[in-house]
Amino acid sequence: MQLANVGNTRLSEAQYREVIRCKTALLFEAATHTGALLAQRENPSLPADEVEALRKFGLHFGLTYQLVDDWLDYAGNSETMGKNAGDDLAEGKLTLPLIQALNIASAAQKVIIKQAIAEKSSDRLHEIIEIVSQCGALQYTHEAAVAESQYALQCLDALSDGPYVEALRTVTQYSTARLF
Fold first, then answer.
1. Burial annotation 42-79 (CB, 10 A radius, 16+ → b, else e)
2. Angle subtended at Cα 84 by Cα 106 and Cα 120, rounded to the nearest 5 degrees
3. What is the rounded distance in angstroms from the CA atom of residue 95 to the CA atom of residue 100?
4. Weakest mean pLDDT among 1-10, 58-67, 69-78, 96-105
5. In the predicted structure, residue 80 carries a pLDDT above the cut 60
6. Eight-class DSSP state of 28
7. Spatial contact of 64 and 176, defined as CB atoms under 8 Å apart
8. What structural domains does the chain harbor?
9. 91 three-state secondary structure
10. Residue 114 parent element (H or E)
């Protein structure tokens, strides 16, 4: 789905969220759900609502993870990210920072973004970083990631406290800590 939308500057936020749900979040959902199902098989008294809470946790954690990654592409530095800033831009991929910027930036700023996407070029990355920052698109993406992490953490409230649940909380908090 993401590859089919390379260069598509009309990609909506809803379409983008479906891409990241299928690309990233379902993987995390499958991992947490499978683990819960295996635990339930070993312990049939494990309530179905706890299995469902873990499935939902994985989904929301996966969305958090991808939103943070997309935010870092325009706000992070390559040393801490393990990848180069602007990689998505250079591949012609629209992520939430660009989608939101295309919704609210000035006409001139939109032209710069659309041209970079069309050319699959990060030559004007510094300008685009300034645009997504100034128009509030980075903040919007930041808030979306934090909201998804809160959903993930709320899912864990349905589970009994213990070292494994605490580890899931910690990894969720670590993921969003990269936003600051």
1. eeeeeeeebbebbbbbbbbbbbbbbbbbbbbbbbbeee
2. 50
3. 9
4. 1-10
5. no
6. H
7. yes
8. 3-177 (1.10.600.10)
9. coil
10. helix 107-119
